[in-house]
Amino acid sequence: MDQKTRILIVEDDMIIAANISLQLSNLGYEVTGLVTRGEEAILHAKANKPDIILLDINLKGDLDGITAASKIQETHNIPIIYLTANSDEPTFARAKATHPYAFISKPFSNLDLQRTIALVAQQIMNTNNDTIGDEQQHIQVMDDRIFVRHNGKMMKLLLDDISYIEADRNYSNLITSNGSYLISTTLKVLENELKNHKFIRVHRSYMVNISKLDVVGEHHLEIKRKVIPLSKTFKEHLLKHLHTI
User: Fold this and answer.
1) Do 172 and 182 form a contact (C-beta atoms < 8 A)?
2) For residue 2, which phi and psi values (nearest 5 degrees)?
3) Where in the chain does DSSP place strands (E)?
4) Would you tell me how many other CB atoms lie within 10 Å of the CB of residue 49?
């Protein structure tokens, strides 16, 4: 593997979690973390953006695995593989509604885990390749608005309503005051499409609407108290644009 697939393990039995982690590491995957609660999974997914989440359905705490998956999917498109010893129909129906890539039933063998992870990793690779080749079909930029494909339909977003854009691998998250919109278009493509508007690349993972800036610091920016990193590579370019508005 040239670039290791990054996997978050969410399992409240640390013996099982450690065994899974060891096996995945031996297979060449990168384990981004071992967490035991749904709340921790949400924070870890946001901070580290793993490629796959291996998620136990029955977690201790206020959030079970299914609820945690739903909250993660509100902002990040990360494939889920459920681990479960519970096969009752209501639980399966709830889990199915989050569109997981696979289920692994407990107890499972090392071979079950190995094959399932390999199949999901291949699906992700195929999906990413298709996305890159088809990404121009998902956006249409006009003078003051952008049309994005969202939940199966084209939706209008006024450019002035977009505060910043955050990269999420081959996806981009458009942040507005009314919510966020995850689209299957890379930040590089959006940068080219929006170069004649008020959007400036400030970091390898961020573009900002310069009319929305509240604070410009030495190494960071702020928009409505959201702290956005400012890379040295892009800083001079940003300052030139600020001086012209």
Assistant:
1) yes
2) -70, -45
3) 6-10, 30-35, 52-56, 80-84, 102-105, 139-141, 145-150, 153-158, 162-168, 171-176, 179-183, 199-203, 206-209, 215-216, 220-223, 226-229
4) 17
pLDDT in tens, 152-197: 667 788 999 999 999 887 788 899 988 888 887 888 888 888 877 8
Q: Which residues contact 151 (CB under 8 A, 6 or more apart)?
A: none
35 and 8 in contact (C-beta within 8 Å)? yes
Cα–Cα distances in Å, from 131 out to 38, 40, 100, 128, 151? 29, 30, 19, 5, 16
Q: Which backbone phi and psi does 74 adopt, to 5 degrees?
A: -65, -25
Kindly state the tokens that stand for 25.
């590491």
For the stretch 5-51, pLDDT in tens is: 899 999 999 999 999 999 999 999 999 999 999 999 999 998 998 99
Complete edge-to-edge strand list for the sheet that includes strand 139-141: 139-141, 145-150, 153-158
* Domain residue limits, the chain: 6-133, 142-243
Cα separation, 114 vs 120, whole angstroms: 10
Please state which CATH number belongs to domain 142-243. 2.40.50.1020
Say if residues 173 and 180 touch (Cβ distance below 8 Å): yes
Give the Å distances, CA to CA, from 76 to 73, 105, 148, 164, 166. 5, 25, 17, 16, 11
Top-level class of domain 6-133: alpha beta
Which residues, listed in sequence order, are joined to residue 156 by a DSSP beta bridge? 147
